[in-house]
Amino acid sequence: MSFDLRLWLLILVSALLLVTIELTEDYLERSWPRVRRPANGWASSEGVQQLWTVVGALVFPGIVLLLLNLAVLVWRDLSLTPVLVLGAMLIGLGWAGYLLLISQIGGLDDYLEGIGATLPLALMAVLLVGDLLLLIGFLSSLPDVSLRRLLP
């Protein structure tokens, strides 16, 4: 049996998805409701929380699209395209920022929430572009199936 990097990436991303789901669940269950004021004072804490929620809402579809792309690559024995690599890198960057927030290591979550709206807005833009690239890569890697061939 040969070493297939795509299959191992699929397994690794699946495991990291499970860890991310557990960390998100723990993050959302702590001391609710959170009433904090950001350090710069111009944005409400509710607005910043909503922005981080949107970041989380963009991370999870990106991870699922990454898993789907890797599964199709393994299934059809295709090679990685630059669109998939760039989309995966952008999703990984957004995913890392989101993990820093929800992991609650060393008070980083308080710091990231206190920064204000700049970081979540930047991560939202990165994740949106990454999601779109992965969606384009997924749709282009699917086999071309005509509806006429499926019907008798």
Written overview of the protein:
The protein is built from six helices and no strands. 23% of the residues are buried. The N and C termini lie far apart (39 Å). By secondary structure, the chain is mostly helical.
Short description, anyone?
This protein has helices at residues 5-29, 45-76, 82-103, 108-115, 118-141, 147-150. The chain is mainly α and 152 residues long. It has one domain (5-142).
Tell me the total number of β-strands.
0
Q: What structural class should be given to the helix and strand makeup?
A: mainly alpha
* Beta content: under 5%
Name the average pLDDT: 82
- Count of individual domains: 1
Q: Based on CA inertia axes, which overall geometry fits?
A: elongated
Number of alpha- plus pi-helical segments: 6
Secondary-structure element pattern, one letter each: HHHHHH
Major β-sheet profile: none
